[in-house]
Write a structure and sequence with these properties.
The complex is a heterodimer of chains A (493) and B (226).
Chain A: H1 4-64, H2 74-84, E1 94-99, E2 102-105, H3 117-125, E3 130-136, E4 139-149, E5 158-168, H4 170-220, H5 235-294, H6 300-330, E6 339-342, H7 343-353, E7 360-363, E8 369-372, H8 374-391, E9 396-405, E10 408-416, H9 450-460, E11 464-469, E12 475-482
Chain B: E1 3-7, H1 11-23, E2 27-31, H2 34-44, E3 48-52, H3 60-70, E4 75-79, H4 84-92, E5 97-100, H5 105-117, E6 128-131, E7 134-137, E8 142-145, E9 148-149, H6 154-164, E10 170-171, H7 173-181, H8 190-203, E11 213-216, E12 220-223
Parallel strand pairs in B: 1-2, 1-3, 3-4, 4-5
Antiparallel strand pairs in B: 6-7, 7-8, 8-9, 10-12, 11-12
Helix pairs in contact in B: 1-5, 2-3, 6-7, 6-8
Classes of the chains: A alpha+beta (493), B alpha/beta (226).
């Protein structure tokens, strides 16, 4: 089982997962859009830059070409370079002219090997204007190659002279960086906005899940009338519908069980009640039977029969009384009428009322007070001491203590005897109805309900009772009652 | 000899109890309904009524209230169920004591003796005690409030006499149960509470805090101090 923290984490996890999924999709969309836009813009920009460089290089080469003598000597090549490289007009150009193995350049640092093979091939062999981007020491350059061909009448025949122009693409790179910035500046707020929207959406999707969670918890707490509102027709709505069906079925089952249980209990109560009227008539004349049975003039058999009827009527009366009492507990009709008492005094009075004072060793410190229902407390003490006297062996000891604990002040009453004690497997069964510790002694003076009634009376006080065996022999029953009753003392003033 | 009127609808129970009561030497008459019972109170002039609560027609509570309206005739109620509500209602209707069926004749006899001890004295007027507006005569068993006699049921009278014998002294419910009702100390304290309630209606001023019979929270009751 997960604790409240674990459940919270689980819920948060689901929300995070939903939100991250939404966020991932949004981020991917934003990034892809930005990347595509960037690529298109970059391509168009570079294309434009290349076109303009290539165009102007060709224009100049074409303008210079007619004045070049053939075959060109070194001076002619230098002239070409100088004419093409009209510095200061736009960019920093490096111009080179090549014919066979001659190589003239405006920048001495640039050798013929600076021209990539593919470009050279295009220019010299295919006689095409070509360009290529090259990387020189981390800077992107555009290399443009233009072949010079003969004019009329040998139109189009390559002369073998090529002009190369190298220009750094600094401006383009800056523009490109600006593009990246723009894409990033667009994408990041978009992703952040997506995060907020994702959280909101996840919250919305999870709301029914949370409602279901709350409802499940309420159901688990026994509130079987819990129902969910079914909204829409999605899977969660289906789940809510299923939940409602389950809850309704549970409620119905529980109601049926309750009815059956109530009927069974009601039956026990009705039986006891029906027995009570004839018993009331018989009980009223028990004393008459007893008196006459003691008289001399009766036939001995008749006298014995009278005594038997009298004794068994008495037992039946006690049994029905106890059954009625248990029925009241079962029906929840047992009420507590508490008053504050000196507990030692109460125990002494209970023992004295039954002439047990001499049979019991008491340890009853003065000054222990508690709020109890006197009639019910009397029943508890009488049942425990009576039980010890009947089933245990003397001496029976009754002690009283007051104990302060974390959950308040408690009164602890112990009733111990020196008998054989209780079998280990019967310790937690002694409070069951009609439980008999010794099956051979199936009939005893009690109704078999005394301990069950004791337990109910202790519970009614919000107290506890337990049975145990003493290490040195004998059984001990311990009753713990709260010093202060939950219900207020009945006041009529 | 005590004249006992038994009002009980079940013939067997009535007969059994009547046998027991006659054995004890009481002149006993049996009535089976509330109406017959009330007629019996007038015609038979009993010293005490044993009254079943569940009766056809006028029920036991109403019979008890009507008996109280005209006098202080001792009433012991018989309740079939040890039902909390029945007992409280019966005591509030004015019953002096109750027994739960099935009851042995011996137990009922003890209750009858205890109730009657509360009213037995019929001595001439003796020394009078005055407590505020109340005048008590412990020998003639009369109570006057502002000079006018007050009709008190036996249990009410005995409770007032017990408390006022030691003004200012607190009596626990258990002590009062023993001395007034002759019940066990750990008996049903509702007897005391219901009786105090009835007594207050008769001797205290309405809508004012109790003056004569004061509640001492957690301990019990005391008379005065005035």
């Amino acid at each position: 089982m997960t604790g409240p923290l674990g459940r919270l984490r689980g819920l948060r996890g689901l929300r995070v997962r939903l939100a991250s999924a939404c966020l991932l999709v949004a981020a991917f969309a934003a990034l892809a859009t930005a990347a595509l836009t960037y690529r298109e813009a970059r391509t168009a920009m570079l294309q434009r830059a290349q076109d303009s460089v290539v165009g102007s290089v060709r224009d100049r080469v074409e303008a210079v070409a007619p004045s070049v003598p053939f075959p060109p000597d070194r001076a002619a090549l230098e002239r070409i370079v100088a004419l093409v490289d009209t510095r200061g007009n736009t960019d920093h150009w490096i111009v080179a002219a090549a014919y066979r193995d001659q190589w003239v350049t405006s920048d001495r640092m640039l050798g013929p090997d600076a021209v990539p093979e593919a470009l050279r091939y295009h220019v010299t062999e295919r006689v095409n204007t070509a360009f290529q981007r090259i990387d020189r020491k981390g800077v992107i350059w555009l290399a443009v190659g233009v072949p010079i061909t003969f004019a009329k009448p040998m139109w189009g025949i390559p002369s073998g002279v090529s002009v190369y122009v190298f220009t750094p693409m600094r401006a383009q790179i800056e523009e490109e960086a600006a593009l990246v910035r723009a894409a990033r500046n667009g994408a990041i707020p978009a992703v952040l906005l997506a995060l907020v929207l994702a959280l909101v959406v996840a919250g919305g999707v999870l709301r029914p899940v949370r409602a279901l969670q709350r409802a499940t918890r309420r159901l688990a707490q026994g509130r079987l009338d819990t129902r969910l509102e079914v909204k829409g027709g999605d899977e969660l709505a289906e789940l809510a519908k299923d939940f409602n069906h389950t809850a309704a079925a549970l409620e119905q089952n529980e109601a049926r069980l309750r009815t059956m249980e109530a009927r069974a209990r009601g039956f026990a109560a009705d039986v006891s009640h029906e027995l009570r009227t004839p018993l009331a008539a018989m009980a009223a004349v028990i004393d008459v039977l007893d008196e006459d049975a003691a008289a001399e003039h009766l036939d001995p058999d008749t006298a014995a029969a009278l005594r038997l009827v009298s004794a068994e009527t008495g037992k039946l009366t006690r049994l029905v009384d106890d059954l009625m009492e248990i029925s009241r507990f079962d029906a929840g009709a047992a009420a507590l009428h508490v008053d504050e008492f000196d507990m030692a005094e109460a125990v002494r009075r209970c023992l004295a009322g039954r002439a047990w004072s001499q049979a019991v060793i008491t340890d009853l410190p003065a000054g222990i007070r508690a709020e109890v229902d006197p009639r019910r407390f009397d029943v508890v003490v009488a049942n425990l001491v009576g039980n010890a006297l009947r089933h245990g062996a003397p001496p029976v000891e009754v002690s009283l203590r007051s104990e302060r604990r974390a959950d308040g002040q408690w009164i602890v009453l112990r009733v111990a005897d020196r008998g054989p004690g209780l079998a280990a497997d019967t310790l937690d069964r002694v409070f069951e109805r009609f439980f008999k510790a010794d099956s051979a002694r199936a009939r005893s003076a009690g109704s078999g309900l005394g301990m069950a009634i004791t337990l109910e009376n202790v519970r009614l006080h919000d107290g506890r009772i337990r049975a145990a065996n003493r290490s040195d022999g004998g059984a001990v029953f311990t009753v713990e009652l709260p010093r202060y009753a939950r219900t207020r003392i009945a006041e009529d003033g | 000899m005590v004249r006992v009127l038994l009002i009980e609808d079940d013939p067997a129970v009535a007969e059994g109890l009547a046998i027991g009561l006659r054995r004890q030497g009481h002149a006993t008459e049996v009535r089976h309904t509330g109406e017959e019972g009330l007629a019996g109170v007038a015609g038979f002039a009993p010293d005490l009524v044993v009254l079943d609560l569940m009766l056809p027609g006028i029920d036991g509570f109403e019979v008890c209230r009507r008996i109280r309206r005209v006098g202080t005739l001792p009433v012991i109620m018989l309740t079939a169920r040890n039902d909390d509500m029945d007992i409280v209602l019966g005591l509030e209707a004015g019953a002096d004591d109750y027994v739960v069926k099935p009851v042995q004749a011996r137990v009922l006899e003890a209750r009858i003796r205890a109730v009657l001890r509360r009213t037995e004295s019929a001595a001439p007027a003796g020394r009078r005690e005055v407590h505020g507006e109340l005048t008590l005569d412990r020998t003639a068993l009369t109570v006057l409030k502002a000079g006018r006699p007050i009709a008190l049921a036996p249990s009410e009278l005995r409770l007032l006499l017990a408390l006022s014998a030691s003004p200012g002294q607190v009596f626990s419910r258990g002590q009062l149960l023993e001395s007034v009702w002759e019940h066990p100390y750990l008996g049903d304290s509702r007897l005391v509470d219901a009786c105090v309630k009835r007594l207050r209606i008769k001797i205290e001023e309405p809508d004012r805090p109790a003056r004569y019979i004061q509640t001492v929270r957690g301990f019990g009751y005391r008379f005065g101090p005035l």
